[in-house]
Amino acid sequence: MYFNVMQVARTYRANALWHSGEEAWRQRGRSLPSRLMAPVEPKRSAPVPGAVVPSSFEQFALETTQGLAAVLNAAVRVKQAVRKLAADSQMAALDQRTVRISHPDVLSAFAAPGAQIRSYTIQVDQAAAAPLVEGTVLPSQAETAIAVGSNQMKLTYVDGTAPFSVYIVRSDTNLQALRKIQAALNQMSLPVKASLILDDDEGTVRLRVEGTMTGSGHTFAITDVYGSAAHLTGIGPFPYTGKDAHYRVDDGEQIVSAANQVMLDNGKVTLTLLEASELPVELSILPDSFMASQGLHQVTARYNELLAALQHGLRFLNRPNVNRAFEEAEGLGLSLALNPVPVVAAVEAPDEQAEGQEQEAEPLPDTPWNRIGLSQFPDGTLQVDAAALEQLLAARFTEWQAQLRAPEGPVSTLVRSLNRLLSLPTEELLDKRKAAYRSFASYQFRPWGSLRTYLPLPLSGMLVNRMF
Question: What percent of the chain has a predicted confidence (pLDDT) above 70?
Answer without folding.
Answer: 74
